[in-house]
């Protein structure tokens, strides 16, 4: 479903006017393979589809994977996918950057920054608001995935115990816990602990505190802290350091909003970005078989072709390995050449010798009798 969301209600200007097409790859190594292609550089694109069945985060893992191909490399732009949160008022024709999502995952490049996003939206049980939790970026050089002009398989597995894995081409590049390894973590008591500590230290140094009292009150998950500083120079100075923070710990970080649709909402300076073989399921075995039947086959051809770049002599080996059996098979199965003499006999129906040699022997025998 193409988004018809508008950026100007009065002028009815479409916010997403980038073109999407289903087309075959122009690359020799991917001939015959069709995918969803982002066509318009510098434009905003949005497209989505409903799931046949709503995905609920219960006791089964979430397995998300898809292929991305930058045939021209990428200058600046994203290629991430969004799992849209289930709601009764979800309308894909109005899909935009404001549409609530549960998980956002995939590659993104801007300038010299190369990232593979994993973001999930978690509901704060105290305030009822949703907060974005970002996975830490892996300490790896990700630039090749954006510049080598090869298709890559991006995989995200999230498990009911709150752990997650991120793989590229089936190679693990990042893993962790939704509780411990996410920036602005759902398990954090408050997000500004370091800022609070540094601010308190600065105040103490400034007034040369000789006596400090600290109190804390807690009510309904809200924490209010303040410090009173007393200075002995016949003047009492009271400095209050105040902070309200929301404190909660999610014992079930895997329990997030259900998903009923998936979509791409992107802006890119690069055209012809291809997306293929998108899979969302709750079975690692299904994902494994899907990978073997899709990416596994094309990746094998890709590896064979890439090997010839550094070893051109492999072309000769490929020709012999593939061509020789074909030649032998054709030679064995090719029918014998039709005897033209036999063909003439069948057309005229005249009595003929069985073989040309027999005919010559009969003529010689007849001449001998006449003598």
Automatic annotation (TrEMBL):
Keywords: Chaperone, Disulfide bond, Endoplasmic reticulum, Membrane, Transmembrane, Transmembrane helix. Disulfide bonds join 76-110. Its main location: endoplasmic reticulum. Residues 349-371 are annotated as: Disordered. PROSITE patterns: CALRETICULIN_2 (PS00804). One of its GO terms (molecular function) is calcium ion binding. This is Si:ch211-274f20.2. It comes from the Eukaryota. The chain crosses the membrane at residues 223-244, 313-334. One of its GO terms (cellular component) is endoplasmic reticulum membrane. Belongs to the calreticulin family. GO terms for biological process: ERAD pathway; protein folding. InterPro entries: Calret/calnex, Calret/calnex_CS, ConA-like_dom_sf. Pfam families: Calreticulin. It is found in: Endoplasmic reticulum.
């Amino acid at each position: 479903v193409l988004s018809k969301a508008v950026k100007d209600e009065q002028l009815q200007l479409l916010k997403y006017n980038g073109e999407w097409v289903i087309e075959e790859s122009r690359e020799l190594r991917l001939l015959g393979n069709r995918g969803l292609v982002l066509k318009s550089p510098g434009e905003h694109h949005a497209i989505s589809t409903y799931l046949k069945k709503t995905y609920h985060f219960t006791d089964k893992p979430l397995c998300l994977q898809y292929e991305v191909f930058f045939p021209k490399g990428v200058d600046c732009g994203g290629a991430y996918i969004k799992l849209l949160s289930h709601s009764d008022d979800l309308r894909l024709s109005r899909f935009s950057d404001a549409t609530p999502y549960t998980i956002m995952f995939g590659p993104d490049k801007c300038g010299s920054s190369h990232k593979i996003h994993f973001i999930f939206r978690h509901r704060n049980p105290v305030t009822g608001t949703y907060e974005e939790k970002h996975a830490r970026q892996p300490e790896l050089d990700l630039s090749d995935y954006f510049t080598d002009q090869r298709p890559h398989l991006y995989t995200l597995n999230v498990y009911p115990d709150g752990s997650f894995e991120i793989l590229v081409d089936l190679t693990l590049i990042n893993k962790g816990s939704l509780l411990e390894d996410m920036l602005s973590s759902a398990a954090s008591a408050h997000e500004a602990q370091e800022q609070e500590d540094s601010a308190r230290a600065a105040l103490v140094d400034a007034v040369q505190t000789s006596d400090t009292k600290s109190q804390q009150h807690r009510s309904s998950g809200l924490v209010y802290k303040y410090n009173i500083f007393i200075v002995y120079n016949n003047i009492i100075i009271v400095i209050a350091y105040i902070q309200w923070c929301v404190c909660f710990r999610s014992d079930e970080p895997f329990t997030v909003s259900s998903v009923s649709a998936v979509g791409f909402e992107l802006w890119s300076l690069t055209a012809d970005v291809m997306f293929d073989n998108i899979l969302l399921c709750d079975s690692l075995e299904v994902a494994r078989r899907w990978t073997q039947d899709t990416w596994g086959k094309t990746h094998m051809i890709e590896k064979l072709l890439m090997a010839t770049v550094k070893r051109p002599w492999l072309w000769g080996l490929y020709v012999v390995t593939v061509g020789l059996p074909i030649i032998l098979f054709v030679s064995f199965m090719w029918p014998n050449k039709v005897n033209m003499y036999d063909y003439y006999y069948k057309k005229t129906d005249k009595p003929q010798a069985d073989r040309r040699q027999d005919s010559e022997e009969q003529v010689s025998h007849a001449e001998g009798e006449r003598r």
